[in-house]
Design goal:
Elements (H helix, E strand, L loop, with lengths): L4 E5 L6 E8 L6 E8 L6 H4 L6 E4 L10 E5 L13 E5 L4 E2 L2 E5 L2 E7 L5 E7 L4 E8 L4 E6 L3 E6 L7 E7 L3 E4 L5 E4 L5 E8 L7 E7 L4 E6 L8
Parallel strand pairs: 2-4, 6-9, 8-14
Antiparallel strand pairs: 1-19, 2-3, 4-16, 5-15, 5-17, 6-7, 9-12, 10-11, 10-13, 13-14, 17-18, 18-19
Length: 230
Amino acid sequence: MKNGFERLRAAPAGRYTIVSKPLVHSGPVAAIVLLSMCTAPPDRATEGVPPPQVIGSAPPATGTIPSVVLLESSSTTGRTLPGDTALMDQFAIAFTPGLLVVQMNQVVAFRNSEEVSHNVRAGDVTTNTTLFNVVTDWQEVYHHRFSAPGEYTIMCDIHPGMNAIVLVVDTPYVTLAESDGTFSFAEVPPGSYTLRIWSVDPARRFEQPVEIEGTVGQVLLAEPRLSDGV
């Protein structure tokens, strides 16, 4: 690999694989992402095949927390409609799920489903500030709309072992990888994207520019920039 990068021109658009690989260099541990054709493209004109499906491999889960894979572009930023109210439950002295991924401006309901009082304290990792800190008794629900992308820690001060993460994103192309790191996206429109990997382990986070065109898949393989946030 020359100067930490190389260029790959793939066959006509079809089914692609994105694979993260270790990159040996003097700085922190990083990765590169490879986009390659994994099946021969069908005749789209006659078969009406939708846009390419992108599959690949990210870093495996850290403990029980999987990697999160995002495809971001200027055409998706600020235009994703928030989904229905998401739920983070409090049961058996734990927040469930331990990682909740939601869209920007989506409402999250924090529900207490056990006969034990809790509090929910949410902190913005980027600004190191507290968004809210509320008590939730049995069957109480607190709603909060997360208006900015980022990583938010969720804690219970009454029970210090209770903690979780809310990851707020601003793209419709987001998925939780499997425990072994495998992931997939269906019907990705052609265009310029940033492939971003989030992990609870900051050393496993990285981003990579990806070009997916209507007739040619192309990616610039470069020493990626490590990312501290989403």
